[in-house]
Amino acid sequence: xxxxxxxxxxxxxxxxxxxxxxxxxxxxxxxxxxxxxxxxxxxxxxxxxxxxxxxxxxxxxxxxxxxxxxxxxxxxxxxxxxxxxxxxxxxxxxxxxxxxxxxxxxxxxxxxxxxxxxxxxxxxxxxxxxxxxxxxxxxxxxxxxxxxxxxxxxxxxxxxxxxxxxxxxxxxxxxxxxxxxxxxxxxxxxxxxxxxxxxxxxxxxxxxxxxxxxxxxxxxxxxxxxxxxxxxxxxxxxxxxxxxxxxxxxxxxxxxxxxxxxxxxxxxxxxxxxxxxxxxxxxxxxxxxxxxxxxxxxxxxxxxxxxxxxxxxxxxxxxxxxx
Amino acid sequence: xxxxxxxxxxxxxxxxxxxxxxxxxxxxxxxxxxxxxxxxxxxxxxxxxxxxxxxxxxxxxxxxxxxxxxxxxxxxxxxxxxxxxxxxxxxxxxxxxxxxxxxxxxxxxxxxxxxxxxxxxxxxxxxxxxxxxxxxxxxxxxxxxxxxxxxxxxxxxxxxxxxxxxxxxxxxxxxxxxxxxxxxxxxxxxxxxxxxxxxxxxxxxxxxxxxxxxxxxxxxxxxxxxxxxxxxxxxxxxxxxxxxxxxxxxxxxxxxxxxxxxxxxxxxxxxxxxxxxxxxxxxxxxxxxxxxxxxxxxxxx
Lengths: 323, 301
Prior knowledge:
The structure holds 2 protein chains of 2 kinds.
Chain A: H1 3-28, H2 34-42, H3 47-57, H4 63-75, E1 81-82, E2 87-88, H5 89-124, H6 129-143, H7 146-160, H8 178-215, H9 219-226, H10 231-269, H11 274-283, H12 287-315, H13 318-322
Antiparallel strand pairs in A: 1-2
Chain B: H1 2-7, H2 10-19, H3 28-35, H4 37-59, H5 91-127, H6 129-144, H7 147-158, H8 162-188, H9 192-199, H10 204-216, H11 218-240, H12 251-258, H13 267-294
Helix pairs in contact in B: 3-13, 4-5, 4-13, 5-6, 5-8, 5-11, 5-13, 6-8, 7-8, 8-10, 8-11, 9-10, 11-12, 11-13, 12-13
């Protein structure tokens, strides 16, 4: 492992600590503490009992001590308890994670693929009819917020045309069997994935077009052409590899943003993911759960960012040397 | 000040003008922005939205919440231009008043994130070392948390209002500005005019405010329109989830009101959605034109 990656690893640890401390501050800016919540639920509770409960939970300690306690708890996987679920927060979040992960991974794959192909196509026909039409479509995609795409697609494909299911991840009471279940899930995921991807297809198309146009003027591409390589070989074998660098960076960013965007999409399509869980947590004012979701998502994103850096040094060895 | 100006004779001024390098024509950037079709269309659309916001109190003095007729009147079917909503409120009035909220939230959030980002970025870039490391890890941390999720949690904790929404949006969007600013300041601080300010004993605060920041602003100006657009989208998203300010009618509020009946009266959600898209499109076009104007060599791409 190089010096660069070692430093990035250290930075990631610091970032996670800062996020946990930020969460603690946010949690403490909510009026009322855990004991107030219990008193509110359990009916009458006298001041003496509340004081003894505060002592038992360590809530009577000064703020810095509680902050260190909180950081320690989070780092050992204790994110608190979600009363409505009667389960630890971490368990609740982990149960909902697979649906969101599936949604995010599929959306990144679809948008990178479709976006890059669109961008390369536009670059190949730069400033001609194909490019102009593609650019206009891209502009429209780029201006449409994810939740409006989701609403529009639901209206057209589920309500009006009836081609695809309206909501949920599976059909209740559908037939058994691995293949049938997979097909059923795929049908339910088409619209959520498509609506999460549209905006990013536009971004990748713009990125890929700009960086293809830049790369195509480089000497090594001219050399590849001069060697007599086919056009497909020049693009896929030589130009695209370098044009992919900004795309890789963007994919990391997209994953970060999708965990937020998933709140809207999962709410609209009724998918049992982390985003829908966050929506429910907000409206039941379940603060430990809200912050637990924030921490788990941030932790995943830190890992994703590290993976992106690793991939980046693979694609472009100069990155390691620059640092 | 004026006394000094008048003592400068005409010949002195002419000599001074000759000694200085030729200045580009005034408002060169503005002219380039308005010279492109993207810039013109973007600006016209934005002027239209701004006119809606300005005319709302004059054309619809009753406000966006007043009932004007039966609920669910389709656009064009009754006396109103865009129909009525679930409670018989005038959709046109709601759209005009909503323009005010979107522009307000967009502009104020963008301004606050610019101030925060410029402050953090210029201090980090100028001082470097430990200050830089601390500020940049803070920036990393804010950028790592999914922005929309973070906004929702902040608004939920503080309780939804225009102030808390603007605050939450600004708190999650400054890191991009800070990064751009820092990168630019890193190169500007090594330049001779900054070094000479240090030599004559100017204070760090004064150098940053009067020399470094004004000379590092151009990349930041370019992303200003993106900040406004994303703030408008975020506000609409929050209001759509029911986390908007309950006392104001925004486009997102109307989309939220139209959602339960989207199968039948889809125009209630579609019309405000269209206004959000139009505004974002206008800001993107304007942003593209400004970007091209600041980076002329990229224009042919």
